[in-house]
Amino acid sequence: MGHHCCSKQKVKRGLWSPEEDEKLIKHITTHGHNCWSSVPKLAGLQRCGKSCRLRWINYLRPDLKRGSFSAQEERIIIDVHRILGNRWAQIAKHLPGRTDNEVKNFWNSCIKKKLIAQGLDPKTHNLMPTSRPPATVAGPNASQFNHPQPPTTPFTISSPSKSYDAMKSTSMEVDLSMVNSLPPSSLPFHEANNISMSSYQYMDCSSVMMGFKDHNSHSSIDFTNSSSTIDHANISSSSFQPPGFMDEASMWADAVDTLEAQKQNEAAVIAQQGNVQEQAQHLVGYNEANEKGLEMDAYNSAAFDLEFMESALMPCRVFCSGSAMEQLQWDC
DNA sequence: AAAAACGCCAACCGCAAGCAA
DNA sequence: GTTGCTTGCGGTTGGCGTTTT
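Predict the joint structure of the above. Result:
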């Protein structure tokens, strides 16, 4: 069965030969592709237009980045997938030179398995309840770790009621310090809006995340708002709106709403298990910790959850860049 | 060494959205 | 409003190379 564009033609299927590639490249580079359905005929190819389009987009395009995914790219995929789900085309837009097909394949062949191995549901990114027994810790500090998961979250992204000190006292120090060491997001958002990496990195992400006014008193994104949602009206009232800002900002605002709702309970787990890892590293290191009765499972789960914590902060990074824009506006 | 199992990934398929007639 | 076409997307398949038995 053929496509609309090629149902009346005899078309070749399967892998593309170098000769076919050459024909397609030559045609596209000289004539472009105003209409894919006419490309095969004009290029002298026995393929359907759809096949030509796919071949060009996924393989022949000159701006494609070949080779394996970097750790940062993997991080971004996980971050964005957590929020957007299997919207590969959207995810790929955050990875210059990568295609949706490539991202999808990488997810299915690699990341998915990693998440499952770490006890996470790759669809929801939530901990799979039956996949990992509750971590238990033996030794002198056992009582600190072995209590049931607290029913309430130690923080929320836009919580108005938590002071910075309160945050620190609920074992978030390690995470806060990590925020500022995060690599800059590769979201094209920044490039599109001329936000330099230096100004982006300068922003105190943790303060933004906590709803601190100090650094962001000029910000139109009010993280101290009692509502758990971002104030879209305030965002739109900004006089500094580079192209694409509203779309991106709205998308991420929505995304954070979703993220917050989904992750509040997990935050408690993360904070607690983060302590397990921190404690282990601080006191002894992995091997000794094991000897002292810190179970590998506890260590691994804590390590993973810290990683999760980092990815959960991605929307904050995005909002930081929003704040950076406001800062620029103020400075000007 | 050979067969089977596995994993990766290019390519295909079907569906939906957008658009023009 | 309907139809036909094109494009774009996500799910799935199948070929091929690699690893395991």
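Residues 1, 3, 13-16, 50-51, 54-55, 58-59, 101-102, 105-106, 108-110 of chain A lie near DNA strand B (CB under 10 Å from a C1').
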